[in-house]
Amino acid sequence: MESVKLVDGNIKTMIALNNKNLYKTDCYINGEWHAAKNGHAIVINNPFSKEVIGTVPDMEAADCVEAIDAAHSAFQEWKKYTAADRAQILRKWYELQIENLEDLAKILTIEQGKPLAEAKGEIRYGASFVEWFAEEAKRIYGDVIPGHGRDKRITVIKQPIGVVGAITPWNFPNAMITRKVSPALAAGCTVVIKPSELTPLSALALAELADQAGFPKGVLNIITTSDASAIGKELTGNPKVKKISFTGSTKVGKILLKQSADSVKKVSLELGGNAPFIVFDDADIDAAVKGAIASKFRNAGQTCVCSNRIFAQEAIYDEFVEKLVKAVAALKLGDGLETGVNIGPLIGAKALAFVENVVEDARSNGAVILTGGKVSLVNDLIYEPTVITNPNTGMKVFREEIFGPVAPIFKFETEEEVIEMANDTPYGLASYFYGRDYARIWRVAEALEYGMVGINTGMISTTVAPFGGIKQSGFGREGSKYGIDDFVNIKYMCWGGVD
Ligand code: ADP
Fold first, then answer.
1. Cβ within 8 Å of residue 253, ≥6 positions away
2. How far is CA 49 from CA 53, 119, 168, 334, 450, in A?
3. Which of 39, 171, 250, 416 has its CA 20 to 30 A from that of 86?
4. CA 382 to each of CA 220, 356, 363, 390, 497: distance values in angstroms, whole numbers, following the listed order
5. Which atom of ligand 1 has the smallest separation from the CA of 235?
């Protein structure tokens, strides 16, 4: 990533869009578009073509303070809006996202690399959180609890927590924002968003649509920076921020959790995963192959819920491997904008080097690379979809979150053995298994130490379910009826003298 001093305004580039307003190269603070106070900007590249696609402000702590102040003063009014009024603006934001779906998807593919069809899916998925929480805004119910004395009555209310700092990653540049921000806004909170420095254009396009939707100034603010650590320190340290919501690596999540301790902020963390994908001998093998392709190779393997370790039972191991290799061979590699492409580039050279290292570790320790195992000739950031047999639990493919299109397939004999292997990781985000025996399905689903379990499916993410992890994959839930909980304080009133 390159940071430059802007001389003549922004570097002149443009993505061809139907709605040109969506191409933003300034940050959105207090309802206005701003350059960085220091005049610096980050250069954004298309990971496939390497072309410069724009610049965004390279902001510092002082800009962040301004955004926090704006959010703090906007909160004083926004929290008083009726739920119906907040819902109406959220609903408008949702409609604008659907109207601009093609453009939003295009921006996403160009800055992130994922195939356009997947990018469209992400925009739909992202917008669905806005729609859902527009509806949920009206259902933030309290309670009336039978009092503990003849003269006592207890009522419980939920109140918005205040200014929320949201830090989001590059692998879902749109949906990771809407998944946090919609429940926050629905609850009556205001937000300062720091998107990934690798994919800021999708975030700024969302801000433009928020502006059009009519959020009052200061309710939603976005700052972009190449110095994530400085902004992270400001968001976690500033007493006006009451809540941190983070999606990203476990390493950074731990830093933010520690930094939030001083002011005892409420925190929710959606961190790394190491998802097992188990195929039992009574499974529908064709369905399992389809599920494995969807959960392993989506976004070129760069999702925190991607299956990382595939386990196939002895009796069906060979059949499963053979069919998976065949399905992998059919995947088309290339520019995400090209029709029919399934696998685009990895996000950058560091990501590619990591995947190469993990595969090399497996190869040099005796694993067999059945297909792939190298950088593609199509593009220097595309890693060929790879299937590995004969791996073992000492290898990096078992221990590390691969974040690339690499499928190691472990052989197992018994249910107990595979549960032990599946749980042998500090992570606990997504897990998957295929089988038909209903008693075993219950046992395995209960035994897996994960926040989410896909049973006979490789696609589990949806607005209506509580997304989140346990162990070092974090805490807090996004989406569903539980999604608001992270953004409200519970208060009870104990009424005395009622006799
Ligand atoms: P990944 O490995 O997927 O890039 P990261 O955890 O590094 O995950 O990044 C996720 C988000 O966290 C990005 O927006 C990134 O800029 C931000 N980030 C990285 N380091 C820090 C930090 N020290 N403090 C706050 N945010 C950070």
1. 246, 269, 271, 474
2. 10, 17, 24, 10, 38
3. 171
4. 35, 11, 19, 24, 71
5. 25
Handedness of CA 115, 117, 123, 127 (dihedral sign): negative
Q: Where are the alpha helices (DSSP H) in 17-165?
A: 61-78, 83-99, 101-112, 116-136
Q: Half-sphere exposure of residue 268, counting CA atoms within 13 Å on the CB side? A: 26
Q: Which amino acid is at 256?
A: L
Active site (catalytic) residues: 270, 304
pLDDT, greater one: 9 or 306: 306
Q: How far apart are CA 466 and CA 460, in angstroms?
A: 10
Give the integer Cα–Cα distance in Å for 247 and 306: 15
Q: Is the CB of 313 under 6 A from ligand 1?
A: no
Question: Hey, where are the domains in the chain?
Answer: 2-271+475-490, 275-462
- State the pLDDT at residue 16: 87
The confidence band for 8, taking pLDDT boundaries of 50, 70 and 90, is very low
What confidence tens digit (pLDDT) does each residue in 401-442 have?
A: 999 999 999 999 999 999 999 999 999 999 999 999 999 999
For the domain covering 2-271+475-490, report its CATH number. Answer: 3.40.605.10
228 C-alpha to center of ligand 1: Å?
6
**pLDDT grade, residue 15 (50/70/90)?**
confident
Identify the CATH assignment for 275-462 out of 3.40.50.10400, 3.20.20.140, 3.40.309.10, 2.60.40.150: 3.40.309.10
Per-residue pLDDT of 363-373, as tens digits, reads: 999 999 999 99
Query: pLDDT tens, 196-245?
Result: 999 999 999 999 999 999 999 999 999 999 999 999 999 999 999 999 99
Cβ atoms within 10 Å, residue 447:
16
In this prediction, residue 410 carries a pLDDT of: 98
Q: How far is the CA of 62 from the centre of ligand 1 (A)?
A: 19
- What the block records as the tokens of 223 is 């700052």
pLDDT, tens only, 322-359: 999 999 999 999 999 999 999 999 999 999 999 999 99
Across 248-377, the runs of DSSP E, i.e. the strands, are 266-270, 275-279, 307-313, 368-371
Q: Which atom of ligand 1 is nearest to the CA of 195?
A: 14
Going 43 to 46 to 50 to 52, the CA torsion angle's sign is: negative
Instruction: Please tell me the distance between residue 389's alpha carbon and the centre of ligand 1 in angstroms.
Output: 33
Q: Which two tokens stand for residue 255?
A: 């830093």
DSSP per-residue letters across 390-445: S--TTSHHHHS---SSEEEEEEE--HHHHHHHHH-SSEESEEEEE---HHHHHHHH
* Pocket of ligand 1 contains residue 248 by CB under 6 Å: yes
- The two structure tokens encoding residue 228: 């994530």
Containing 183, the helix (H) or strand (E) segment is helix 175-187
